[in-house]
Amino acid sequence: MEGNTPGEYATDTIYDNRSDSVDALISPSHRDVVAELLNADKKAGYSSYSLQIHTLIKASLARGAAGMVGHGKNVWSNVHINDLGNLYNVLYDAIQVNPATPHGSKGFYFAENDKHNMCDIALSIGKATVSLGEAKSPEPTTFT
Question: Does residue 4 fall inside a structural domain?
Fold first, then answer.
C-alpha cells in the first residue's frame, strides 16, 4: 500500500486489524478508493471483487505471452473462500450481539492464510496459456 513501486519489491510491513484506525495504513494514492469503500459502508453495503488476476489473464492472452507489472516481486495475501466465509459469520454474530462492532474506518478486517507474489501468478498463467496453445513460452515478461 506504499509508494509507486509497481512490482519491484516485497515489503516487510504486515497490515492487520489491530490498528486504531485504517487511516494510518493508507497511502495518499489509495485514499480515493478507500473513501469510496467507506462511503459504501455508510450506505449499508457494497459489492466488490478483485479483478487483478482476471486482468492479468486477459492481458496475457491478448499479447500471446504471460505478463506482470515490473518484476512481479510484490507480495499479495490470499485467503480460502471458506475461511473468509467463517470470518463473515463471526462478524455477523458479533454485530448481532453488539451493534457497535467496529465498522467504517475502524472496522477493516484482514483475512489471510497464505501469500503469493505476482511473478509466481504470472508463471502459472504462462503455463496455462502454453497448455492451451495461446503462448509459446511459460516465462512471464514485464508489461511495457
Answer: no
Residue 13 lies in a domain: no
Query: Domain range spanning residue 70?
Result: 22-142
109-133 confidence digits (pLDDT tens): 888 888 889 999 999 999 999 999 9
Q: What's the total number of domains in the chain? A: 1
Q: Is residue 35 part of a domain?
A: yes
What's the rounded Cα separation, in Å, for the pair 70 and 29?
18
Q: How far apart are CA 55 and CA 26, in angstroms?
A: 24
pLDDT digits (tens, 9 = 90+) for 51-96: 788 888 999 999 999 999 899 998 888 888 888 889 989 999 999 9
Question: Would you call 117 helix, strand, or coil by DSSP?
Answer: strand
CB atoms within 10 A of CB 21: 11
- The cell for 141 is 515478461
C-alpha cell read off for 142: 514485464
HSE (CB half, 13 Å, CA atoms) of 71? 5
